[in-house]
Amino acid sequence: xxxxxxxxxxxxxxxxxxxxxxxxxxxAEVLAEGGARVCIFDLNQDxxxxxxxxxxxxxxxxxxxxxxxxxxxxxxIAFDQVAERHGRIDxxxxxxxxxxxxxxxxxxxxxxxxxxxxxxxxxxxxKVIATNLTSVYNTIKLAARHMKRxxxxxxxxxxxxxxxxNDGIVGTPYMPxxxxxxxxxxxxxxxxxxxxxxxxxxxxxxxxTNIAGGRMRFEEDRKAFSMWSALGRVAEVSEIxxxxxxxxxxASSYVTGSHIVIDGGLVLRPAEDA
Length: 274
Ligand code: NAD
Prior knowledge:
Blueprint: H1 3-6, E1 13-17, H2 22-33, E2 37-42, H3 45-55, E3 61-66, H4 72-86, E4 91-94, H5 122-150, E5 153-158, H6 174-192, E6 197-204, H7 210-215, H8 219-227, H9 241-248, E7 259-262
Parallel strand pairs: 1-2, 1-4, 2-3, 4-5, 5-6, 6-7
EC number: 1.1.1.-
InterPro entries: NAD(P)-bd_dom_sf (IPR036291), SDR_fam (IPR002347)
Enzyme class: oxidoreductase
């Protein structure tokens, strides 16, 4: 196989959930640059319209569907729409997610001094688990149903380094949600491997997106995210594209059940230094 064939995604049909901004947008962009047909699923119609408009310039085949990944019937219909238009579904990025948000911030956007588990709003727990974990289950399930019919595919979930450690910054429900994603990916890889469906997770460290950008206004978080990493900096969003292309392409044909960290070496640092 030539180098070009190894990274060829030009015949692929892809879905990226949460692809209207941030990391998902970068996944959609690199797939489109590689010639894949890409459908972006996102809740935010304005961002979706803007991103689809920007990414579908030239010959790129990018379109979007407004869908909430926590809404199972709507998500199922959206998958069917893509299968009908593209004929098949080869690559699915289960990426949509939200931050720990108001569970640990005050309504004014300051850090909540009482933002600990005994004061956590239950509806906040439910929302973060639904959006960051259960939606990944919803997405993997539908992807597997479609891919089994066409002989295989690639499913890539966005986990986080939050799956690997705990801290007082990111928020109570976010950490177990991402740990759940890591384990769900391994379980799905075990179950789906014989169907030629490879399931992996990308575990990013700090990338400047809408999610992480909000937290960067806190001095202690900027310090944590930048100075704890071996590279001494946070990442540009475009730095996720190489790994995304690798996992979507023939180059990664023997990689499944992996939780691949891309964090500038942040998790290398012993907890006592943090
Ligand atoms: P982002 O806010 O830029 O993008 C998230 C996208 O998901 C948005 O377009 C949003 O509208 C969409 N979305 C949210 N809820 C949705 C829902 N219910 N249905 C459909 N779409 C929905 O943030 P991001 O940083 O690009 O986040 C993408 C993923 O990366 C998330 O799973 C996040 O937890 C993970 N992550 C991000 C970082 C980071 O530093 N940015 C680090 C680790 C993990």
